[in-house]
Amino acid sequence: MPALITNSTTRYGWAAIVLHWLIAAIFIGQFALGFVMMRVSSQRTAFELIQLHKSFGFLLLGLVILRIAWRLGNTVPALPRSVGRFERRVAPLVHFALYAFQLALPLSGWALVSVSMLEIPSVPFNLFVMPDLPLAESDSAESFWTSAHWYLAYAGIGLVALHFAAALRHHFWLKDAVLTRMITPSSDHNAE
Amino acid sequence: MVARIFGFAAVAACLAMPVFAAVALSDAAGSYTISPAGSSIRFSVGKAGGGGLAGAFARFKGSIRIDSSNVGRSQVNITIFPESVGTGQRRVDAFLRSDAVFDAANSPEIQFRSTSVKRTGDTSALVTGRLTARGKTFPEKFTAELAGLKAGTIRFHVTGKVLRSRYGMDVGTPIYSNVVDFDMTLTGRRR
User: Fold this and answer.
1) Which residues of chain A does B100 touch, with a Cβ-Cβ cutoff of 8 Å?
2) Chains A, B: CB pairs < 8 Å
């Protein structure tokens, strides 16, 4: 077993697990940061928080692309037997939607800063200049992408809540390995 | 810039030779009030990836006094009202006026008081002075180039660089440069 990095048919490897939790932390953190940065009264703090939000957004986009590539090039572990027929149909749809939101949120944010008439450069973590997407700048385009980003954020966090509730249900109610196999690959608890 | 100087020299040579060749101090000497109509105070701040943020102050006042016997004793005083900043983007203007940058509500004036004027050429001078913004004062240097002298009116093109971080305005660095480039045309009318 090559150091449990890759997935097998019964469990997730460390790469998938680390990417899952890293992206989860950034995704939820970005939601909180986005919420706060739009409400602070100091314009200076708001500016700095928005730049931080952009930095983490680009980091998220990079990690999500890596994650999707990893997922497509790796075995996907089968669902434990305890998972019922309804969930077998719905879970993959929710997971697909979660991936779609992970991509759509940073992309819509990138579009938003690209079309903004404010023309504030994106310099993730002050490391390098991230070019804008080739979209025309206008106030109407900015308000469109601002709304899109906002709705995607709330829908996305709702989906995360659903996903989280399902994981807790599996762990505490059904007492199966759905949650624990996303925490460590070493346990031999996959009833397959 | 070089082209501009040469162009300027050529125009000066053709049109204003008698005035500029030896700018007789006696001609220019006197006290002037800066006239907003013929003046502008523009600035720009470079940004990461090229381009920059450019704007101007619409309201300012000041005076220029050119000493009749000694240019070095000349004096320039300018007061800028940062509330009047304009960049063409309302949100940027509001940001600049806020306590993130100028804090115009609490610091309604930016002042420059010259401390020395050194003539550096027939029509140019280096003006050193004390710039006060947001309660902080530092010495700054500006280059002044005589751009016109007619009966009762004197015009200077003034340029200089100011480090904004020293005045508590470092917000946005390093995405936006710490260096603010000033480009002013100051027209004085003899009092």
Assistant:
1) 42-44, 47
2) 36
Of B99, B100, B175, the CB nearest to A123: B175
Whether the full predicted model's pTM is greater than 0.80, yes or no, is: yes
Q: What are B116-154's pLDDT values in tens digits?
A: 999 999 889 999 999 999 999 999 999 999 999 988 999
Instruction: Tell me whether B99 touches chain A (CB under 8 Å).
Output: yes
Q: Name which of B91, B95, B175 is nearest A121 (Cβ-Cβ).
A: B175
- DSSP label of A83: S
- Which residues, including other chains, have CB under 8 Å from residue A72's CB and lie 6 or more apart? none
10-residue averages of pLDDT along chain A (192 residues)? 80 95 98 97 96 98 97 91 89 94 98 97 97 97 98 97 94 91 73 41
Domain ranges in chain A?
14-182
Q: In A, which residues are within 8 Å of B98 by CB distance?
A: 43-44
Question: By the 8 A CB rule, do B105 and B90 touch?
Answer: no
In-domain check, residue B7:
no
Q: For residue B36, is the peptide bond before it cis, meaning its omega torsion is within 30 degrees of 0? A: no
Read off the CATH number of the domain in which B52 is found.
Answer: 2.40.128.110
Residues of A with CB under 8 A from a CB of B: 42-44, 47-48, 51, 117-121, 123, 126, 129, 131
- Please identify among residues 136-175 of chain B the ones whose CB lies closer than 8 Å to any CB of chain A: 171-172, 174-175
CATH, range A14-182: 1.20.950
Nearest to B79 by CA among B122, B40, B132, B157: B132
- Reading phi first (left if > 0) and then psi (alpha if -120 to 50, else beta), residue B50 is in left
Query: What pLDDT is recorded for position B56?
Result: 98
Is position B81 within any domain? Answer: yes
Distance CA B51, CA B45 (A): 9
CB within 8 A of B109, min separation 6: which ones?
Answer: B79, B80, B81, B82
Query: Residues B58-77: pLDDT tens digits?
Result: 999 999 999 988 888 999 99
Instruction: For residue A46, give the chain B residue with the closest CA.
Output: B100
Q: Inter-chain contact B171–A126, Cβ cutoff 8 Å?
A: no
